[in-house]
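[audit] Reproducing an earlier prediction to check determinism. Same input, same settings, fresh worker. If the tokens differ from the archived copy the diff job will pick it up downstream; this log only records the rerun itself.
[audit] input (830 residues):
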Amino acid sequence: MLAPSRKPDLGSLLAGYRPLPGSADELMTAAGEIRPHWHPVLAEIAGAKPEDVSQRFAVADRQIKNSGVYYRVYDTPDGRDRPWPLSHVPLVIPGAEWRSIEAGIIQRAQLLEHVLADLYGPATLVREGALPAAVVAGNPDFLRPLVGSVPLGAEHLVVYAADLGRGPDGRWRVLGDRAQAPSGMGYALENRLAISAALPSLYRDMHVERLAGFFQAMRSTLAAKAGRDGSRIGLLTPGPANETYFEHAYLARYLGLLLVEGADLTVQDGIVYVRTIEGLKRIDAIVRRLDADFADPLELNPSSRIGVAGLVQALRRRTIAVANSLGAGLVEAPAMLAFMPALARRFLGTELALPNIATWWCGEEGVLADIERDLGRLAIVPAFGRRIAGLPREGANAVADLDEDGLARLREIVRNDPLEVAAQEMVRLSTMPVWTGEKLEPRPFTLRVYAVSTPQGWEVMRGGFCRVAESADPRAFSMQRGGRSADVWVTSEGPVDHVSLLPLPGKVAIRRRLGHLPSRAADNLFWFGRYLERAEATLRVVRAVSEMAAEADEDVAQATDRLTDLLVAWGAAGAPPPAKAKPVHAAEATEAILRDVLDGREDGGIPALIGAARRTASSIRERLSRDATQAIADLGAMVESDRDLPAADRTDRYLRVLAALSGLSHENMNRMAGWRFMRIGQHLERAVLTCRLARRLAAADASADMLDALLRVTDSRITYRARYLMGTLRLPVLDLVLLDDGNPRSSAFQITRLAEHQNELPRVVGEGEVDPLTRTSRLLRAEIETTAAADIDDRMILSLENRLLALSTDITARYFNQDEARAEITEGLG
């Protein structure tokens, strides 16, 4: 609890706080009275100094940052991830009011299930004229290949959400239904963790309902849908480029689901399998987080690159459960809102407890004339979400905001294409308090409420996802266009039960493996390790060049030239100036090359390598620790902001972060297959790069300075000097950096560790046989262990390098690019 440093002063806290004209307010009545359920929140904030309040809210911001919560904004120039915008004051709703919301959400979910079952089944609604055929057939989310197929479990909706707004009359209204793939649940959970950490005593004393019960019901429902002992459930994501990918990874981890992309799945004989490093494994249920149209390029959208070919066939055969069913997004169309009141009376025999905003589909007979007459008080929206020239795809086109030319264009759109547009009443959303740093101000908001279908009926999350506008415009908005998100506190009259996803003691089987590793995840971990190792080697070369460039010795200059030539050969820097224009000591050319490595756009430069590591890490976010994710993000920010620092200082800073990342992976990651693939990538890359360094710097004519440069880059100078009192000699150096398996920087060390990790990976072989990859790594290890320093020449080093590269290709072919025609299904169909 905030320490009360003074008597609560609501006057300064609420200075200037007034409900917006024509809008209701959650905190204050129209007469300026504080609603009773808000008094504890106001007392908590007003009883402390503003700086103390800000300090407590900073705890919530740190929680969000440390958890790596982000959101991708598409319409920015770089399209990058943005920190999650958290509004620190929760939306408070009394339990009695929430129960009415809950009842309305359950009623609406039941209604939509009836509608979907009819439209993909007997279609009596269209046949009897309750729904115009154009509203169904003209909707891009109506998927004809699914007509007549009954989902496994006979339910189209497993998770449903509705966006709510409170109108000026105080009633909640449905602004839109979310049945395609409702998002925001994971963000709602993170909001709760952050705000409850900032205000723990207030959270406890106000008896806020917990969220874990909802997720517990969701997980149990999915397990029941899967229907097999030992079944697998996946969360199907479009991939890291999606705006809410963080939530996909977060929910998969929280619910214990397998995070998969379309490329991870394959359909054989009407059964869906996930590609893993152990072969194909059957998957029994999918939580879908991509639009249905993209789910199957064979029968739906042929341009889709994120779907699963054959998924529709598997659904027809009822071998997999998909939540929500393909085609469920049909009921999200704004045009459908126009018919919901009548459909409720038809199916439920009653009025909607939560009415939606008044909507008219312009294609309905007799409606267009009424709309044109009342156009000034309406908003015009795309009827089916399709982009229409002159209309925004998201949000409403408020007619009152248009000038004369704009109004004329809008009338033309409505007249020329009435089937594609709908008219809605303009909703003036209610407002809630937002902390500005010194006081509270009212801001409009919308509330997304979630429900999950369980064997016992629908269960509603006691909380939700609240989006708060940045401006005082009390009309529809989206997170893409700015805004914040607030926690939703549903209060109880008494203490609430502690609910956890943890099972009861003695009711859980002990497990020491994390489930099957998808091939895509293994591939990303492998390359994450390689990118980090490649970046480290490049930085070590840059640091050695920076240190050696300050020395005036001619032999040192030759060694420096070899290192800079190596940077160019690696693709870390562009080609240097022509030889005839080069200064004797190449000081300017060397400086230009180092700048190019650290700031340029070459594929092998540091910005490109760190960028590739960040992108790869974002694809395996659920498998990396929070500290590792933050470290790679910090490194990316440093590369962009350190341009004015000397090269030596920059390389030192970056190498320290990379060393921390290596330590985190070594200390924090469980020794499962994912960790081994990352380590294999690191060891393989280091072995290859060490060979390349040795060929460049330890040739037969290498000078002592070149050999010393090799020791610098491989971080082996201390070991060499501790062993040898004489100067830097070629054979001892080659032995140390290539053959000494006690030197963690040597190729021998990498090959030994690589073989050990390889031996722990799954192999598909007959009884007593040696896996081909294991045979290759064992032969490499035997050769490096039996080679003497005197036997090393350029040909031997090049052969070793090529065999390591071939091993990389074999690992990719075996574990990442499985040939479906030969892939082994390693379990029965069940």
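[audit] rerun output stored. Observation attached for the diff report: Confidence is low (pLDDT under 50) at residues 75-79, 580-585, 826-830.
[audit] end
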